[in-house]
Amino acid sequence: MSAEPSLPITSPAPRFGVWLIGARGSVATTAIAGCAAVAAGLHPPTGMVTETAPFAASHLPALSSLVFGGHDTVDCPLPKRAEHLAEGGVLPHGLPAAVHAELVAADREIRPGGPPPGDTGRTQDEWIDVFAADIRDFVRRQDLAGAVVVNVASTEPAPADGSLPPSSLYAAAALRAGCPYVNFTPSTGLHHPALAGLAESFGLPYAGRDGKTGQTLLRSVLGPMFLQRALAVRAWSGTNLLGGGDGAALADPAAAAAKNAGKERVLADTLGTTPEGEVHIDDVPALGDWKTAWDHIAFDGFLGARMILQTTWQGCDSSLAAPLVLDLARLTVRAHQQGLTGPLSELGFYFKDPVGDGPSSLAEQYTQLRHFAERLRTDTPAPEAHR
To answer: InterPro entries in the record, alphabetically (predicted)?
Structure first.
């Protein structure tokens, strides 16, 4: 009697962790719910650059392979947070119920953040150890092939002394846990002098900082336009009206100053000079997760003709940021798989104040990003192909 032919043994597809700092915030909740919705085919991947044709063969981890967890100092469960966002029009009606299981699973992997203000119970190094242990336990518990840490927490003021602010504690913990790090905020993170060279010493890639989602995105397009058409910009002023957690955080003048530094740097880099004018940020709680950004640009034309360009950008910050967070997680995981280390300047397309050396014009940054996609394509494929 002949033996039955044996079926080939297949290994389970690898999964990759996305550990979010500020995991119960609006951006994180939108990213987690959106990833589940797109992976299930409930919604198209609008706003995700990594889902466009140039990235189709870059061997990025599948959206369905991403597993979420993180740190946060608040205790509102993700399903409840998603319901609030749906009530505010940030998430589609019915989506929180459709991806409830994924939200619950991610919420189980969120650990308490810190340190609380004025805490003296642990040293900074002990906090780093605690955070790093949380990340390592997440990777082991979920049997992950790797993980990336992404900071999407509210903006913090720049440190006034030599101590490490929370964002820097989380960044150091990511590296200590062996994970690449992305700073989507203007907070200090790895930019603290005490952490200089730390990422290189761990042999890990990192990217940041301060996601470019609205007003500065437009500035990185308009600035080169004025320069290339030889039009002299005399003044560039702006105003931001926003609510939600980001609005409350930026009501602190020190936090607003950290945010505005990136906006002003884009103009200086693209124009070659810093025009007159300032950016003002106003907290309007009634706006919730929606924001309005207004720019007033005074410029000179031929024979000194004085002209004005005004722009108004109205959008939902969480909806603009979430697809970029998913892009960055996938790109950074793939870069780590390929053994890349140090600052990923090729990801400057996503940031106001990108690490490493690179262009400031959005068009040039996009060209650089596409070259990066080709580099990932030509190297050894990852075990799991693009979704």
So the answer is: Myo-inos-1-P_Synthase (IPR002587), Myo-inos-1-P_Synthase_GAPDH (IPR013021), NAD(P)-bd_dom_sf (IPR036291)
